[in-house]
Design brief:
With 163 residues, the protein is mainly β. The protein is 0% helix and 30% strand. It starts with 9 loop residues before the first strand and ends in a 20-residue tail after the last strand. Bound molecules: S-adenosylmethionine. S-adenosylmethionine (SAM) binds at residues 35, 38-41, 76-79, 102-104, 111-113, 131-133, 136.
Length: 163
């Protein structure tokens, strides 16, 4: 399951207990079953992928079809979580701390992609723009930042919107 360490990469011993837990709210279906076939970052012209939302969360999809783009958060379940110094090119020369990378190997392996919403079929969203392996667990869906206007009204502390 763990990716092999490259020369010079560093791991830490992770904490023994978790600080929070989460629920997988669905599963993502993509054409990619091997990491080497997956794009490094999804593109809006990428292949259609299916985001299956589990039945208990069906009502949470109300209003989603109004958006052309969504932010998808997923759990990179096949990543290692103890890597702090990485050598992404495998060249033994260029090293980066995990937080300076968008690598899947990170303490909380959360992936995010901006996707284009193609259509909604019941509790399944058909989208383009993902970069994860087939079967990756879904952890959240949010409307695209630019298309979204707060539904709860402004707060005095909100910055003025530019027209
Ligand atoms: C570089 S990450 C970027 C993820 C996301 N777009 C982001 O920026 O947060 C994408 C890579 O993660 C790897 N990957 C995809 N799905 C994965 C999974 N379920 N578990 C572990 N690694 C995964 C693949 O190698 C893929 O090319």
């Amino acid at each position: 399951m763990h990716t092999r360490l490259r020369t010079g990469e560093r791991t830490i011993t992770p904490p023994q207990t978790a600080d929070a837990d989460l629920w997988f709210i669905g599963r993502i279906h993509t054409p990619w079953t091997a990491r080497e076939d997956c794009p490094r970052q999804g593109g809006l012209d990428g292949p259609e992928c299916r985001i299956e939302v589990f039945a208990p969360w069906q009502a949470a999809l109300e209003g989603i079809a109004a958006y052309g783009h969504l932010e998808i958060l997923y759990w990179l379940d096949r990543a290692r979580r103890d890597l702090v110094r990485q050598n992404p090119k495998s060249d033994g020369a260029h090293f980066f701390g995990t937080f300076a990378l968008r690598s899947p190997q990170r303490p909380n392996p959360i992936g995010t992609s901006q996707v284009r919403l193609i259509r909604v079929e019941g509790t399944t969203l058909i989208v383009r723009g993902l970069d994860c392996l087939d079967g990756t667990p879904l952890i959240d869906i949010k409307p695209d930042r630019c298309e979204f206007t707060p539904k709860a009204g402004a707060k005095p502390s909100d910055p003025q919107r530019q027209s």
